[in-house]
Amino acid sequence: MTTVRPWTASDRQLVFLERPEYEVLYGGAKYGLKTDALLAWTILRRTKYPGSKGLFIRRMMSEITKEGAAWDRAQQILGNGVEYNRVDHKIHFPNGSVLEFGHCKDESDKMTYQGAQYDDISFDQLEQFTDTQYSFIKGACRTALIDPPVDAQGKAIVPKVRCSANPGDVGHDWVKSYY
Question: pLDDT value at position 96?
Fold first, then answer.
C-alpha cells in the first residue's frame, strides 16, 4: 500500500486542491509552491481512484527531471511503496494507478498525445505552452466510458485539468484571457 508522507497545504493550496471545476489554474509569483500543489493533487487522485491515469506535463522534460524538480518532489511526497520507472518517467502505484511525466517542447510534440487518454492532466507552468498545445493535449483528458476508475464508495472519477502559471512567457496573454 502506498503511504503518502505528511504534506500540509497552505491556505491557497487548499483552495486550489478543493476546487470542483473541470479546469483550474493556480497562478502567482515564482516560488509559490504551485508545483507541490499540482503533485499533491494528482497523487491524491491516483491513490483515491485505483487504476486511474494522470499526466503531469512541462514544456521540457529537463524541467521535470533536474535536481529538486517535480520528479524528485513526487518521490519526496510518496516515499517508498510505489515503483519509479526512470526510463519512461512513470510512477506505478500498487493499486494499478499510473502517473506519467511528459513534455511538449515544440509545437509538433503535442502530437505525441494524440489518442492518449488520461483521467486528469496537470500542466506545470502553463504560460510556457502555446494555446494550441494546451487545447490539443487537454483533449486527452477523458475517462473510459466502460469501467472507469472508481473510489472506495463506487463513485467514478471525473476528468479534470489543473494548471499552474507565473506571469510572463510565450503564453502570458492567452492564459490571462482564458482564465
Answer: 97
